[in-house]
Amino acid sequence: MTQEAATTARLMTAAKEALENYHDVHVDDDGALTFRHSEVPCAVQAMQLAEGLTVLSLTCVVAWDLPAGDELAQSVAERAGQGLFGTLGVVRTERGVDVTLRYAFPAEGMDPSPLGTLLMLVVATASQLRSELLAESEGTA
To answer: What count of Cα atoms within 13 Å lies in the side-chain half-sphere of residue 7?
Structure first.
């Protein structure tokens, strides 16, 4: 096993241990960790960007197949400027608009407790955003 592989494996083990305090975590065939926070599917991967810089990348699918429109785009843009833990992404598909929240950070050497806290801050934000966006798309906000 290469040094890079060993480092990312240690980081994924720490992330799995941290997340298992809150969720049922599955290890996919490619080594990614997947779980759901409320109705939000999430995935965690580790990668070495440069020697000595290994990061965890958390991706949450906040909402999907939302009706495309200027109001949704404006709402997402406003939230993106609010200093969230992560970066919002919008993808237009044939069925509507999908919204993701991504957060990457150097996590090597973090203990499971603070690592879990940081990951949960991101997924809690994703869940809150999901509720708000769904309410807006249904016209109840």
So the answer is: 17
